[in-house]
Write a structure and sequence with these properties.
Length: 539
């Protein structure tokens, strides 16, 4: 347990990726396989489930600390994390638990799901009697299910790769569907790669930066190909002695889209395609939100009809990376495109759509781009005809560019905020915004979005002081403020949502600027948002 707590503290105390990877690598090299398995599970979100002890834990801790609720909440606001606050305030003895991580979970975590309230309290108190303050903090996080130490699954994969010498794609594939909490599972995870696994690996994705300026600045239009930029999930399909679907984040998703896996059997052996995963209906893509309902779910008797038999996943194919088992990435885009057309010509399948190449001058393309939302795309992709399929993000004239539409914008009123976490635990950085319900004189503000990015550090500090001075009520960490300040928010899309008071939810909201030139009364109305609703969502 002591070594895992040390790792957790190291991960919390730095924002530098290379230091986190180094800490993870050292840990996985040092610990036994059983602790390694549990560490991977916890760090990738596979916490023990159905413990039923979270509320019991809170009551128990508050009773033993003995502070009034308002003071406990003030402490939590100052620290920024409930588990850390409890660990700092809970009486601790100057000793360290000698149990391993796996032993601690076996004795003091897993049994909680089978005990009544009194049994849970006895088990938790016995554990706390053996733990130091830092160990209590980790123990609290495991029980509460809020185990976030500033790492994502991709970072854990990087740490495992550094420790084992395996490539990240191999480890990502092995972690598909989670990891059992056994020594054998961890040993298999870090075992050398087999030839069968190697056959199903994807290539590194080639990414495009935003176009900075006007498209005609790129030069001769004939040297550039233009395609629609579809709003789905970037994906590679690997067809080598089997089929695997990989996202740009190196996550294998074959289990969620078995129709595409079956359809890919018709492709020639030794084929790798690059494209966009979409849900398709009557010649149009469904919303990204509907696609997400499929992304993290596998077919089962309960979901088979309503989810998997009523949606049609397709791959909008952009590029050919491999054919006849030969890597084609160093060939020019126009040669790869010609080969791609040949590969798909004889495939009679509704699950593969070849991306259209758009005609016209730069001005004509600009007009088509302006109508991208009606086609439910994000804009255009521009690819130099002589460009190779590189690694990472392209640059220079012989690369790729995404020519996206400008984001939707709306002027909103700040109505509340709460403190951030970690280094921002003492600043109000998570903001709640609203728009006016209608144009009537007595119109109310209705919640529209939450955002926390877009302001400079100076603006954050200045706004924090204003929030503290203009609070009209407080509920836990949330402060309701006087509705006076207006901010311009940008977002990628919006749809109807009964969960929001405005009836509308937005995608990827971010603060564009602080509108100090505008009074709250001039902020936008719900009617202005309804005009922007996605066509599919408005029906």
């Amino acid at each position: 347990m002591r070594r895992f707590v040390q790792l957790a503290l190291e991960l919390e105390q730095t924002v530098r990726t290379n230091r986190k990877v180094s800490a993870l690598s050292s840990y996985f090299q040092e610990v036994d396989a059983h602790d390694g398995a549990w560490a991977v599970r916890l760090l990738t979100g596979q916490r023990p489930k159905k413990l039923g002890a979270s509320q019991n834990l809170r009551k128990l801790v508050h009773e033993h600390i003995g502070l009034p609720d308002w003071l406990m909440e003030a402490c939590r606001s100052a620290v920024g994390d409930s588990s850390e606050t409890w660990a700092l305030l809970f009486p601790s003895k100057s000793k360290t638990c000698e149990l391993s991580l796996a032993q601690t979970i076996k004795q003091y975590v897993l049994p909680l799901g089978h005990l009544d309230e009194s049994g849970q309290r006895a088990c938790i108190l016995e554990a706390l009697d053996q733990l130091s303050a830092s160990e209590k903090q980790v123990y609290f996080k495991i029980i509460r299910g809020g185990f976030r130490m500033g790492v994502k699954k991709a970072l854990v994969v990087k740490g495992l790769a550094a420790a084992s010498g395996l490539e990240e794609a191999v480890l990502a594939h092995r972690l598909m569907g989670g990891l059992d909490a056994t020594p054998e599972a961890f040993q298999h995870l870090v075992h050398p790669e087999s030839s069968e696994e190697h056959a199903l690996r994807a290539y590194p994705f080639f990414l495009a930066p935003p176009l900075d300026g006007e498209a005609h600045q790129l030069g001769d239009r004939k040297e550039w190909a233009a395609e629609w930029k579809w709003d789905g999930i970037r994906m590679q399909l690997v067809r080598r002695n089997g089929v695997e679907l990989w996202t740009r984040g190196e996550e294998p998703i074959s289990g969620q889209f078995p129709e595409l896996v079956r359809a890919a059997q018709a492709l020639p052996e030794g084929t790798v395609l690059d494209g966009e995963l979409l849900l398709w209906s009557e010649g149009h893509p469904k919303s990204f939100a509907e696609l997400q309902t499929r992304l993290h779910r596998a077919p089962s008797p309960q979901t088979q009809f309503d989810l998997f038999e009523t949606t049609i996943p397709i791959m909008m194919v952009y590029d050919l990376l491999e054919s006849d088992g030969i890597d084609r990435r160093e060939e020019s885009w126009e040669h790869r495109r010609s080969r791609l057309e040949e590969v798909l010509r004889n495939i009679e399948c509704d699950h593969f759509h070849l991306s259209d190449i758009l005609d016209g001058s730069w001005d004509a393309l600009a007009e088509q781009r302006d109508g991208a939302r009606a086609k439910q795309t994000e804009g255009l992709m521009l690819k130099h005809c002589q460009s190779i399929y590189g690694r990472g993000r392209s640059s220079g004239r012989a690369g790729w560019f995404k020519w996206k539409l400008d984001p939707y914008t709306v002027d909103c009123v700040l109505i509340g905020a709460q403190t951030g976490s970690g280094r921002r635990a003492d600043l109000y950085t998570d903001y709640t915004f609203a728009v006016w319900q209608d144009d009537s004189p007595d119109a109310e503000l209705v919640t529209f979005a939450k955002a926390y990015s877009g302001l400079t550090q100076k603006e954050i500090e200045r706004l924090d002081r204003w929030i503290r001075a203009n609070t009209i009520s407080q509920r836990g960490p949330f402060r309701q403020v006087k509705p006076m300040l207006v901010f311009e928010l940008g977002f990628e899309g919006l749809r109807r949502s009964p969960r929001h008071k405005s009836g509308i939810a937005v995608r990827f909201p971010r603060i564009l600027r602080w509108r100090e030139d505008k009074p709250a009364q001039e902020a936008d109305r719900v009617t202005a948002l309804e005009v922007l609703l996605e066509p599919e969502s408005s029906c």
